[in-house]
């Protein structure tokens, strides 16, 4: 059985494709173990449990857009988020990560790479967001 960690959220543009892929994996009847990673604040915090999936939570760590106090705190906050995802990967014996953009994706890409497991970037927008642009540089494929 393959364990998938689907990471993404914040908006419907990230959550709806994530849920469609989750449902597709489940419907294939291959016994796929589908886990969803998101934040406690995003749209995923409601939609994922409503659809019958457990939401594994990671801290929301926005990428800084200008040099300010939040930018100074970013490295330590991002490292903590990566550590949270690595713990989820280890606990659930994840085989592959699929990112859909949003706050949960960037730490999931880094954690997957450090854990030595493949990750895939799913992008449905004409202009990818920052997390997916960064993740695409190292994605499997």
Structure in words:
With 141 residues, the chain is an alpha/beta fold. The protein has a single domain (3-133), classed as Rossmann fold (3-Layer(aba) Sandwich). It contains five helices and five strands; from the N terminus they run E-H-E-H-E-H-E-H-E-H. It has helices spanning 12-27, 44-50, 69-91, 105-115, 130-136, and strands at 3-7, 33-38, 55-57, 96-99, 119-121. It has a five-stranded parallel beta sheet, with helices on both faces. Strand 4 (96-99), helix 4 and strand 5 form a beta-alpha-beta unit. The protein is globular and about 50 Å long. The two termini are 21 Å apart.
Descriptive labels:
141 residues, alpha/beta, Rossmann fold, globular
Any chance you could write out the topology, listing elements then pairs?
Elements: E1 3-7, H1 12-27, E2 33-38, H2 44-50, E3 55-57, H3 69-91, E4 96-99, H4 105-115, E5 119-121, H5 130-136
Parallel strand pairs: 1-2, 1-4, 2-3, 4-5
Helix pairs in contact: 3-4, 4-5
């Amino acid at each position: 059985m393959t364990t998938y960690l689907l990471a993404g959220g914040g908006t419907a543009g990230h959550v709806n494709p994530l849920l469609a892929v989750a449902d597709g994996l489940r419907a294939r009847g291959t016994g796929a173990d589908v886990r969803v990673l998101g934040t406690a604040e995003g749209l995923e915090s409601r939609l994922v449990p409503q659809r019958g999936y457990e939401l594994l939570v990671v801290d929301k760590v926005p990428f800084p857009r200008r040099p300010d106090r939040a930018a100074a705190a970013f490295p330590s906050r991002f490292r903590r988020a990566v550590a949270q995802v690595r713990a989820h990967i280890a606990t659930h014996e994840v085989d592959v990560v699929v990112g859909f953009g949003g706050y949960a994706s960037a730490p999931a890409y880094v954690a997957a790479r450090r854990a030595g497991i493949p990750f895939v970037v799913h992008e449905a927008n004409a202009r990818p967001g920052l997390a997916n642009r960064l993740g695409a540089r190292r994605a499997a494929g």
